[in-house]
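can u do me a favor
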């Protein structure tokens, strides 16, 4: 028990002593408190726009304690454009696709304290396919949502890196 307590204090001392700050702190220095979020609807798959908007709002609230504001109130904005997805077969069995990769393309435009920036992210998800077309449709939708989540995560990592590189 004493060893675990000692190890815990060493770890805490290490993280506080080396100047560690979470990425949420770095992201918060890039944006003002209020952020306007706009999601352009894809003509090919309009059903994904509400998911992207909700997920981005959730990340703003949870990742760096920001708040989503109206266009008039916000000094910063994030504009997201989902440009669709491509499916690439990866494995076949008896002439049927059994495993595929989905590439999800998302474009980000943002206005921050440092100015305007654009980032294109392509996230990929690998999935197995069941024989039923109904199951494939559900798996396809789930794979797109997972790809969009990955793209948003990568975007926030990108913003965090921008923040750290501007400080040095």
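np, heres the sequence
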């Amino acid at each position: 028990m004493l060893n675990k307590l000692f190890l815990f204090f060493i770890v805490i001392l290490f993280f506080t002593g080396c100047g560690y700050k979470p990425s949420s702190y770095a992201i918060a220095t890039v944006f003002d408190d209020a952020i306007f979020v706009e999601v352009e609807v894809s003509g090919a798959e309009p059903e994904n726009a509400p998911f992207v908007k909700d997920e981005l709002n959730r990340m703003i609230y949870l990742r760096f304690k920001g708040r989503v504001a109206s266009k008039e109130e916000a000094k910063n904005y994030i504009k997201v454009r989902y440009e669709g997805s491509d499916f690439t077969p990866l494995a076949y069995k008896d002439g049927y696709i059994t495993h595929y990769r989905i590439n999800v393309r998302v474009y980000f435009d943002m206005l921050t304290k440092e100015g305007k920036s654009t980032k294109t992210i392509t996230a990929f998800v690998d999935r197995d396919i069941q024989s039923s077309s109904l199951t494939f449709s559900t798996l396809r939708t789930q794979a797109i949502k997972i790809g969009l989540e990955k793209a948003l995560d990568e975007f926030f990592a990108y913003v965090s890196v921008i923040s750290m590189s501007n400080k040095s």
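The longest helix spans residues 133-167. hope that helps!!
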